[in-house]
Amino acid sequence: MFANDNLYKKNARDNFWPAQVVFTLVEDVRDLDDVLEDLAEEIREFETEDEEDEDERIIGQVVRTEYGYSWPLRIPKRITGRLVAYTTTVDVQCKWLPARRLEEPYIYIRAYAGKDRQDRLARMIPYPDDDDDDGYE
């Protein structure tokens, strides 16, 4: 969705910068890249409609301020339809970016999403072809 401007510059291996991402845990989504791209565009223009929905209210604040929120927030059904999808802020580890800068419109994450917001987590993992020996495959 949006990322710290420093991610588009060459970085030292130990640098990390925040980025707001969208994701789903549904595995069989047709045209997943297009779906996530459409959701990201919708979220960039997001405006809160239901002030009683805390996830929706927080998403609205994140979009207005570009100040991140580290627990995954459920994207409202009015945007996702039947798809369950989330948005969250993750630290993008520059050592895991192939060129140590963001060149693709995506990163890889590992995520878990329980029912409650505090029971959700998303963290960046290395790109699959990363030959860096950080314990991930």
Q: What sequence of helices (H) and strands (E) makes up the elements?
A: EEHHEHEEE
Largest sheet: 4 strands, antiparallel
**Apparent shape:** globular
As a whole number of angstroms, the C-alpha radius of gyration is 15 Å
The separation of the N and C termini measures 26 Å
Task: Report what the structure shows.
The chain is an alpha+beta fold and 137 residues long. The chain has one domain. It is built from three helices and six strands. The chain has helices spanning 32-44, 54-65, 77-80; strands at 2-3, 16-24, 73-74, 85-93, 108-113, 120-125. A four-stranded antiparallel β-sheet has the order 1-2-4-3. The chain has a two-stranded antiparallel ribbon with strand order 5-6. 23% of the residues are buried. The mean pLDDT is 91.
Describe the structure in brief:
By secondary structure, the chain is an alpha+beta fold.
